[in-house]
Amino acid sequence: MRDFLLDTQTIRYWHDSGCSQHMAVSGNVVVLRQLASSLEVKPKLLVSVVTLGEIGFGHRVALTPDPRAQAAYVKFVEDELPNPLELSRDVADAYGHLRTRLFNKYAPGEKRRPKMRPEQLVDPATAKELQIQENDLWLCAQAVAHDMVLVTNDRMTQIMHVAVGLNPPLLVQNWTKPNEVSIPAYLLWRAVRSGLW
Fold it and tell me: Torsion over CA of 52, 54, 56 and 59, rounded to 10 degrees?
């Protein structure tokens, strides 16, 4: 059973009814819950401790903080995603594997240093920085280590490119588009076969 790991933006879109992505993200949550209602084992929606850190950082550096709105957002996250996903040794291993693949593919030859951060990697064809966020790499590692679907609006093109062939695979869905949520076909097949669907 694959669970769903929601990134910071996806959670914000789900919570903020004033943003243009809210309807699509909340609609995908509803669809997932409807699809899963007849499954024996239901997929979970999860938040990473990395994402909780990003949320806390954002609240602390807000130019015009609104304590009531921030408290309502924290309560929403705690109510909807009550069991944060911790970092583990398996996640650290997946992170090291993904970062090595990124380094080997995108570290510039003459400037290649093992201490290069993902933000410093460049596309060899264009010499432009990839702009890979360290926290995105950790979320991808969590999704791979726990065989989850990462839900994000970020493109993650380079990470997904180097993740090809990983087992378990890096699976990504973008719920800012209506009807993007999907439960892996083998789970639906099992539900149909057992008469639950």
Answer: -140
Q: Alpha-carbon distance 133 to 184, whole Å?
A: 28
DSSP state of 40: S
Q: How far apart are CA 158 and CA 181, in angstroms?
A: 22
Which residue is associated with the tokens 């130019």? 63
Are 11 and 81 within 8 A, CB to CB? yes
**Residue 18 is which amino acid?**
G
149-151 β-sheet, strand order: 45-47, 4-6, 149-151, 171-173
Spans of the chain below 70 pLDDT: 1, 108-131, 183-197
- The model's pTM is 0.84
pLDDT of residue 2: 86
* All domains in the chain, ordered by first residue: 4-193 (3.40.50.1010)
